[in-house]
Amino acid sequence: MKSSKKPVYATKLGAMYCGDSLSLLAGLDDDSVDLVMTSPPYALHFKKEYGNADQKDYLAWLLPFAEQIKRVIKSSGSFVLNLGGAWQQGSPTRSLYHFRVVLALCDELGFSLAQEFFWYNPAKMPAPAEWVNVRRIRVKDSVEYIFWFVKDPYAKANNRQVLLEYSADMKRLITRGVKAAIRPSGHAIKTSFASDQGGAIPSNLIQCGNNESNSIYIRGSKATGNKVHPARFPAELPRFFIEFLTEAGDLVVDPFGGSNTTGAVAEELGRRWLTYEIKPEYAEASRLRFEGAAEAIAVANGQPRLVGT
Predict the structure, then answer these.
(1) What is the mean pLDDT of each run of 10 residues along the chain (309 residues)?
(2) Residues 270, 249: contact at Cβ < 8 Å?
(3) Cis upstream peptide for 238 (omega within 30°)
């Protein structure tokens, strides 16, 4: 890492930097990052306090960041991008901005789309109110897109690291076994289908609420009078992709760090991490996520100690 900028704080495994992530990404070496996991501000018509580009400007705003991300990730690395959908202004029709992002990243920058995921948030509020609650001509929008991009189609990934507990039905099948058969769908069921592989392979639908209410970060923010970041994503999202796409000691970067959920999860899982946040108040408050951890937060006097860099 070539940047000489002082971090807001550092831990045993990573550091939070305050500043423009475009210039901070430029300070990273080529092919040095194993995973970029991030959720940039969405293309919403109404402005948020953390800053967001309008739909018509969004692609031009995001592409320079994506260019730097492509440069810094390894050929074995991944870029995971969470983008929420949006509505056309004054109309009950959907924006296509996130699809344009996918096409541009693949067609213009040379990324490959490894797989799309869907984050189902059952706690999401009904919106937009005009179309969902007042006129009742649309239903609640509860799913957001997560796009997994790679430079190499065979980039590092291992679904054995994110296996789920078997269902009760599958546990019974493992116990009693199955006979080889051809299903009406044409799928061939072999006797090995009922062998215990350690758990069920997860789907590309991730269900988790975004209603964090009693974490160290929330309690600490209230106690210190700091404003809670209004656009946090749940820890389950970075946890899934960090476990799925990286190994212990790998480097995870979040260019739009916010309250630093990604860094906190990476630290917990033994990955090195770097996060960037442009607003000083959010960068400083994110320190609260690490209070009470085994390794105390230390405000670094120089570069953070990052193993292997």
Answers:
(1) 76 96 96 97 57 76 97 98 90 94 98 97 88 95 95 98 90 78 74 79 89 58 61 85 98 95 95 96 87 40 33
(2) yes
(3) no
User: Which residue carries 């590309």 as its tokens?
Assistant: 204
What is the spatial distance between Cα 89 and Cα 223, in angstroms, rounded to a whole number?
A: 38
Question: Measured between alpha carbons, how far is 59 from 308 in angstroms, rounded to an integer?
Answer: 34
Gap between the Cα atoms of 107 and 105, Å rounded: 6
Per DSSP, the three-state class of 42 is coil
Find out whether 306 and 18 touch, Cβ atoms under 8 Å.
Answer: no
Looking at the chain, list the stretches that DSSP marks H as alpha helix, in order from N- to C-terminal side.
21-26, 55-72, 97-107, 129, 168-176, 216-224, 236-245, 261-268, 280-285
**Domains located in the chain, CATH noted:** 29-163+202-275 (3.40.50.150), 164-200 (no CATH)
Summarised one tens digit per residue, pLDDT across range 36-72 is: 999 998 765 445 454 556 688 899 999 999 999 999 9
Which run of H or E residues covers position 184? none
Coil, strand, or helix at residue 189? strand
Q: CB-hemisphere CA count at 13 Å for 73?
A: 30
